[in-house]
Amino acid sequence: RPPLDEEEQKAGFRACLERTCVPQVQKVLQLRSANSVGAQFQMVTAGRAETRPDPVNSDIAKQASDADARLLECERQCARRYWPDALEQSWLGTVSVDMAGIARDQTRGNSRTGRFT
Hints:
Elements: H1 6-41, H2 59-82, H3 95-100
Helix pairs in contact: 1-2
């Protein structure tokens, strides 16, 4: 078969992401959110040394980092197979989240109303 043109490569890449990477997005976002909220709002027991969860080295942070790495690797595998030029793009690793149509950070407050969005 003749080499695919760029539009065919992009279509194959998108189909691969939809099939293999987008299903992972919800777990990645849940872990990111849990890590963020846990670091900000964890209760500290009175009378004990103050220990807040480490936003970088806690178990949830490690799980979130691992999930992010798996999502990036998933997108890289699709790029290698269908659209090799995408491997050099800075947006690689974010496409599946965009395709899933989920807000990246649903815990960030709105500065005008003070409410969560």
